[in-house]
Amino acid sequence: MAAASLQGSLLKLSGVLDHRSVVAVRQEAERLLRDAGQAVVVDCSGVEKSNSVGLSLLLVLKRAAAARQQTLRIQGLPHDLQQMAQVTELTELLV
Amino acid sequence: MTSDARYAVELKGVSFKRGERFIFKDVDIVIPRGKVTGIMGPSGCGKTTLLRLIGAQLRAEKGEIWVAGSNVPALSRSDLFDLRKRMGVLFQSGALFTDLSVFENVAFPLRVHTALPDDMIRDIVLMKLQAVGLRGAIDLMPDELSGGMKRRVALARAIALDPEILLYDEPFVGQDPIAMGVLVRLIRKLNDALGITSVVVSHDLAETASIADYIYVVGDSQVLGHGTPESLMESDNPRIRQFMKGDPDGPVPFHFPAAKLADDLLGGGHA
């Protein structure tokens, strides 16, 4: 089960983010982003397993935040997503 | 489940025939999870057939083929469809859709197998093309690409769905030395970074031995031997030694069976 939740300005992603679950999580995360204030932190430490769609979700949130003049920082990227970010040369874009 | 979780693929007592001829007879093979395993052997020995058995494009006469925890011959059609999404295949020919751009070729499996919106499909296509060094070629058509670039686009497409197992069918055939070096590096990089299990079917010895953690040598409808590339180089088995060292003559003879040369030339044989 994958989910997005908000605590103040901390947007937490959790569970297994795959091709099936990501669309619903994206909708929820984008909705929560609107109430997350100016400086948002996306916490991925609760993501149990993911793949390219997890990185795409983070890019979607980055673009949405930028369009709203919010700053968005990502923390707690799990090992599998770090490895994938490295192979796809996204590490610097996902800070 | 598989008998051993260390293996991504297990073939147990597998036999496969074409007509009356055995291509494989009671073959046992295990493919370690997260490693690069080479399947090697002379042309025509059934290496591609082996990949097709693993991918369930062919059905074995006998035996069990376990892939990612499922016995493939026993799967229903829909379970097989789901299992195939967890496997990527790099075909020998590349098999790009000639009427689709590079972008659409890589996007194809995502459009067919997922309900992702267009912006996420674009993200993933760009990521995969970046991984193979061809993001700049996104709008080109396949006939505008070199042979090596086609193979790399096909690789980007093969990893579009983040497969657990990646099957490579003769990835080095027809590639120039630079393209070959790029592919060797990519196969190893994707395997190690993404935790993929890679099965490389090839008769290109140097390239396969340079990236494989483990190699099976097949021929005569059996597994002739298996081990690390280094251990196979030192094998006592003359068939394996001939293949690994590329000797022109040996148990696989240089000459196709024929009458004695003297009989043919001096004995008044047919003109």
From TrEMBL, chain A:
Gene3D superfamilies given in the database record: STAS domain
Organism, scientific name: Atopomonas hussainii
Protein name as annotated: Phospholipid transport system transporter-binding protein
Pfam family, one: STAS_2
Superkingdom per UniProt: Bacteria
Entry-linked InterPro entries: MlaB-like_STAS, STAS_dom, STAS_dom_sf
Stretches assigned to the STAS domain: 10-95
Signal peptide: none
SUPFAM superfamilies noted in UniProt: SpoIIaa-like
From TrEMBL, chain B:
Subunit structure: The complex is composed of two ATP-binding proteins (MlaF), two transmembrane proteins (MlaE), two cytoplasmic solute-binding proteins (MlaB) and six periplasmic solute-binding proteins (MlaD).
SMART domains hit by this protein: AAA
GO molecular function: ATP binding; ATP hydrolysis activity
Keyword presence, Nucleotide-binding: yes
Source organism of this protein record: Atopomonas hussainii
Cross-referenced CDD domains: ABC_Org_Solvent_Resistant (cd03261)
Keywords of this entry: ATP-binding, Nucleotide-binding, Transport
Domain (ABC transporter): residue spans on this chain: 9-245
Name listed for the protein in its UniProt record: Intermembrane phospholipid transport system ATP-binding protein MlaF
Function statement: Part of the ABC transporter complex MlaFEDB, which is involved in a phospholipid transport pathway that maintains lipid asymmetry in the outer membrane by retrograde trafficking of phospholipids from the outer membrane to the inner membrane. Responsible for energy coupling to the transport system.
Transmembrane region(s): none
Gene Ontology biological-process entries: lipid transport
Keyword Glycoprotein (UniProt): no
Signal peptide range in chain numbering: none
Family of the protein in this entry: Belongs to the ABC transporter superfamily. MlaF family.
